[in-house]
Design goal:
By secondary structure, the chain is an alpha/beta fold. It contains 11 helices and 8 strands. The longest helix is centred in the middle third of the chain and has 24 residues.
Length: 279
Amino acid sequence: MILNYNLILSSSASEILYVDQNGAVSSSRQQAIELTGGGVSTRRANLNWCRPLHFIPEAESRPVIALASFPGSGNTWLRYLLQQATGVYTGSVYKDYGLLKNGFPAESVVNGSVSVVKTHEWGPTSRKRFHRAVLLIRAPGPAILAEFNRQSGGHVGFASPERYRRNKGRYWQQFVKDKLRTWRLSNLDWLWNFTGPTHVIVYEELVSHLERTLRALIEFLELPLDEAELQCAIVRREGIYKRKSRAVTLDPFTPYMKASLKAEQDFVFKEIQMYLDSA
């Protein structure tokens, strides 16, 4: 697979941008709606699943598979898609009560009874819990915006313009600097240092080529593939994750930030391409 991606940033502060709760930025409202994924509120939602969800029997004989990502990369949306397409619960190293009430009752389950286990952690201690890994990578600009919105406004909120101007903008500048470093280190740690079989998914490819990406993932997970359920998952791709978007005239990234984001993105995506070419 040849990666085809763009750095999703505005080139002009006067351009109208559409920003969703997860940090997806677009000049097209429809594209902004499509580039969604992430957490939900603590209010219980009415979800319709393609089939009843279940745990995998004989879990002790199955590998524990990480779904590793930097925060804001669409981890929860991919979990939702997997549950729709396979009927198997997904787990997490965390216990998010909002997700627990909204379709993810296997929060905090870390074993082979679930198809994958969500984690944003990295390093040897975090990696050693898993036998195999799915690495979900999203362009750093949208991912960092998503995390800033989550920390500032919760799972379904936005960071206010005042948050970007906090301490004369220094808070936001430091946030981008710190998170960009973590984005690079965490993704490369899983890519370079995890010794088990690894399947890489680029978020932008997931959005653009959903069926193809899901098929390949289900095959890697060695789960049964039912065509009717796969098509059902594609039809229900948004579920409760179709967010409202809002138009703003704020471009939070300075030219220096954009240059840094592009440099790090180019380096990491080059490493991903090399990994894919050698696989």
